[in-house]
Amino acid sequence: MSRLIPVLYMLLLANAVALAYTHYGIAPDWLTVYAVIILGVICVVRAISWSRASVVVDDIDACIRNLKRIRVMAAVIAVLFTTWAITMFGYGDPYQQGHVAYFISITVVGCIFCLVNFPPAALLVVVIVLGTFVLFFGFSGNEVYVAIAVNMALVSLMIIQIIRSYYANFSGLVDTQLDLENQHQRTIELSRQNEALALIDPLTGLSNRRAFFVTLDKTVKGAQATDRFAVAMIDLDGFKPVNDVHGHPIGDELLMLAGERLRRILGEDTLLTRLGGDEFGILLTEYKDAIDLIEMGGQLCAALNRPFALSGVTVQVSASLGLATYPTVARSSNGLFERADFALYHAKKNCPGEAVLFAAHHETLIRHDSQIEQALRKADLSKELTLHYQPVFDTDTGKVNSVEALARWDSDLMGRVSPGTFFPVAEKTGQVGFLTRVLFEKLLVDMATWPTDVSVSFNLSARDIVLSDTVEWLIDEIKEHGIDPKRLTFEVTETAFLRDFAAARTSIRYLRTHGARIALDDFGIGYSSLRYVHELEFDTLKVDRSFVTPLPVNERSRRIVKTVIDMCANLGIECVLEGIETESQRDAIHALGGRLMQGYLFARPNREAVFAPLHQTLKS
Ligand code: C2E
Ligand code: CA
Ligand code: CA
Question: Stretch 292-309: mean pLDDT, rounded?
Fold first, then answer.
C-alpha cells in the first residue's frame, strides 16, 4: 500500500488538473486555479511523505495506526474532491458536465484499485464518492444523468463485490504466509532443541563426542599464535570387568559418578565430554606449563582410582590419561586427538593409572607404527609371514609336551619385525584377522608332516576371539585338513575378555565343544581375574615370564608361582611356565612342583619344529 498510495495521489492530481483545464475560464478561478493548487499541494505532500515512509511491518501497532490514518485521509480526500467536482458541475455545458461524470467514475475506480488491500478505506471512498454522485445525478431530473446514476450504482455494487473477493484472497495469502512463517520458526526451534540434544551424552549428562570435536575444531580454528591448550583423553582400566560382573546398570552408575568426579575437579567451564564407552575427552585451557598439566592429569587419574560406592557394591577401577598440547605437538584437531590417544595408549601399556604427555619421542613411535601399518598393507603376507616353533617340555619325562607356533615377519620393506611389535599394530588397524588366517593355514600344512601325537599351540589375538566368524573358520579349516582338533591348543590373553566377555566366552565354548583346547596366556600380568579361570574352563594356564625371571631371588614370586601351580593342580589344569632361561630358574620351579616349562634354556623358537626329548630329566 505504501507503494500504491503515492500513485493514487498522482492519479487524483492529474485527473483534477485535466478537469480544471476543461473548466478554466468557465468556472471561477477559485475553483479551477486556487482550489486545484490547494488540492494539489495536499496530494503532493501526502505522496512524498508516503514514498519516504519506512515500512515497519513487524510493529503491528504502528501498522494499525497507519491504516486508521489512511481511512481518515481517504474520507477527507474523497469529501474534498467530490465537493470540488460537484461545485464545478454547475458551471459547465453538457460536454463539461460529462467530463465531470467521467472524472468521478474513472478517478474513483483508480483510487479503489490503489486501496484494494484495505477494503474499509476503499468502501468508504465508494460510498462517499459514488453515493454522493448517484444521489446527485439521480435527483437531477435529467434522463441521461439518471441513467448514468443507475449505471454507476450497478458498477459500484460490482466493484464492492470485486474488492471483497480480492480481499478474501489477499488475506488468505497473508494467513498462509503467517502460517508458513510460524511453521518455519517452529522448525528452527525444534532443530535447535535437537542440536542441543545431539551434543549431550544422555547417560552422564556431559557433552558427547560430537560436541567434543565441534568445540575442538572451533578452538583450533580460532586459536592465535600465542594460545595454548591441551586435549586430554581418559580411559578407565577395569571398567569392562565391572560391567560383566555386576551388570550394565552398575556400569552406568560408575560412568555417571566418574563423570561427576571429573566435573568437580575441572569446574563447570572446562569442556568435559564422554567420548563413548569408558572414554572421556577434556579440553584444558587453564594451566601454567607442562609440569602443571601432568600434575592436573595425575589428579584426575587419582580421583578415578579411589573406590566407587555404587548401589550395593563398592568397585575400584583405575584411569589412564593421555595429553597432547597445542601448538607444541599438533596444530590440527585431528592431530591433537590422535596424539592424545597415542599418549593414552602409551600410558595404558607402560604406566596404567597415570597421565602421559605426548612428547617428541612418541612421534617416532607413531611414525614407526604407521610405517608398520603401511608395510603390512603392502606386504605379500603369505610369502613374508612364517611360523617358528618352540617346544614346551615336560621336565619330568624330558619329552616334548607340545610346540608353540610363533609368527615371524620378514618384511621386504622393513626387514624382520617382531610379533610383539606388529601384532599390536595389526590389532589396532583391524588387519589381524587376515594375519591369523594366513598363519593358521601354514600351521596346518606344517602339522600334516609331523607325528600325529604332537600337540600344537597357536596364539589368537583378542580380536580373533571376539569374532565368531574367525572362530568358525578355524574349526572348518582344521576339519578340512583332516587334523584332529584335540591336537590343537588356542592361546588367548585376558585382553580378549576385557573387550567382550560374552563373545569371548561363546568362542571359547565353541572351540572346546569341537575338541580344541584353550590356554590362558601371559597369566599374572593384567587382571588375572580368578573369575576368568573359574568361568571359562581353560585347559592350560601359562604363567608369564615376568614371574619366572625373578624366581630364584624373590621369595614373593616364588610364593605366587607356588600358589598358581597348586591351584592348577587342584583344578586339573595344566600349568606351563614360560621364559625359563637359566638352570636356577628351572630348578626353583621344579622345587615348587612345576613340570611343564618353555624357554630359551631348553630351545629357542625355530623354523623347524624339534621333537627330540631333553637329555636330562628332573625326575628325582
Ligand atoms: P607369547 O605368546 O607370550 O610368546 C612367548 C614369547 O616369549 C615369544 O616371543 C618367545 O620367543 C619368547 N620366549 C620364549 N622363551 C623365552 C625365554 O626364555 N626368554 C625370553 N626372553 N623370551 C622367550 P615372540 O615370538 O617374540 O612373540 C611375542 C608375542 O607375540 C607372543 O607372546 C604373542 O603374544 C605374540 N605372537 C607371536 N606369534 C603370534 C601369532 O601367531 N598370533 C598372535 N596373535 N600373536 C602372536
Ligand atoms: Ca603364547
Ligand atoms: Ca605368553
Answer: 94
